[in-house]
Amino acid sequence: MFKNRTPWSSISDLMAALMMVFLFISISYAYQVTEQSQTLVTQSEQLTERNQQISEIVAEWEDYRALIYSDLVEEFGNVLYEWEAEIDEDTLSVRFNNPSLLFAAGRADISPEFDLILEVFWPRYISVMTRYKSVIREVRIEGHTSSEWGNVSLDDSYFRNMALSQSRTRAALQKCYFYTSLQDIAWVRGNVTANGMSFSKPIYNDDGTENPQLSRRVEFTVVIDSYKKLKEISEEL
What we know:
Blueprint: H1 7-76, H2 80-83, E1 85-88, E2 93-96, H3 99-102, H4 112-129, E3 136-144, H5 154-178, H6 185-191, E4 192-196, H7 212-215, E5 217-224, H8 227-236
Parallel strand pairs: 3-4
Antiparallel strand pairs: 1-2, 2-5, 3-5
Helix pairs in contact: 1-4
């Protein structure tokens, strides 16, 4: 005759079974934690690598910015005062600041004085740009206005000045295109754009008010081709 198993024996078997379940859960949890840790390490390594790539691109941009700025200063430093122009080291913009020297008031006709300047400036400017054609994505000819436009609303002034700035920068591009050598004409067609900005980027006085005189200007700005590389990296994140 078999003896009946005691309640203590049943409890012992139950405890053993529970221990096995707990052990299985612990092993599964440890495995998941290990996998997650490995995933986090991999993601951290990838992020570090991408940050390094971004840092290298920024450093490369700084190097080219410094080189282009230096060449522009060397090329035009002795005539900037005469042209009432300046070179912005941060944006690499050659900025012509005297509106009365550029266009007739409220019109898109280039003045004879500015025409003579462009005839001298543009071929020399392009000679600098083509030294860096492998890294330049765009040369932007930008027309800027003040927010002033008679007795109209700010909205009306914005669109009227937009039309004016677009016409002016297109006129400037046409003059520059005419003064481009045959060897550079294809590069100019592929990389130089005309951009009317209205009064989207005004120049301000020290007290925070708009400076209408300085806001009415033409700028030649270089865009270095780091944007595409940064965009490719960001899309991988």
